[in-house]
Design a protein that fits this description.
By secondary structure, this protein is an alpha+beta fold. The chain has a domain of 78 residues: Winged helix-like DNA-binding domain superfamily/Winged helix DNA-binding domain (Arc Repressor Mutant, subunit A, Orthogonal Bundle), CATH 1.10.10.10. It is 62% helix and 12% strand. It contains five helices and three strands. The protein has a three-stranded antiparallel sheet. The protein is elongated and about 65 Å long. InterPro entries: WH-like_DNA-bd_sf (IPR036388), WH_DNA-bd_sf (IPR036390).
């Protein structure tokens, strides 16, 4: 899988939603989502790995680095979303098939007549 980590996946998801963001703003959004402080060296290392892989582009705006998804990054986020949606939908379908009819519909099936 191209993400190789949840952090990479989540960074790309944030950028997919937001468009371009400065590095610090992106870090703040991820920290809010995780409700934990992220080590800056680790965070920027993750961004660099995504840039090196061709999923993010970095440009300089004044003194700030600004990050955005490349076309390849957008494509990967969308394919991951489709894959995840298929997993969730198939799990829901499987769960429905495994439930007794009464739980699925709220209706009781008629009892079979004993011969």
């Amino acid at each position: 899988m191209w993400f190789q980590s949840g952090r990479r996946r989540d960074l790309c998801a944030i950028l997919y939603d937001a468009g371009e963001l400065r590095g610090q703003k992106l870090k703040t959004r991820l920290e809010r989502y995780y409700d934990v402080r992220i080590d800056p060296q680790s965070f920027y290392g993750t961004l660099q790995a995504l840039v090196d892989a061709g999923h993010l582009e970095r440009r300089t705006e004044g003194i700030y680095d600004v990050y955005g998804l490349t076309d390849a990054g957008v494509s990967r986020v969308e394919s991951y979303y489709a894959w995840l949606t298929d997993r969730v939908e198939s799990d829901k379908e499987q769960t429905r098939e495994e439930q007794p009819h009464e739980q699925q519909t709220g209706e009781k099936q008629p009892a079979e007549a004993n011969e």
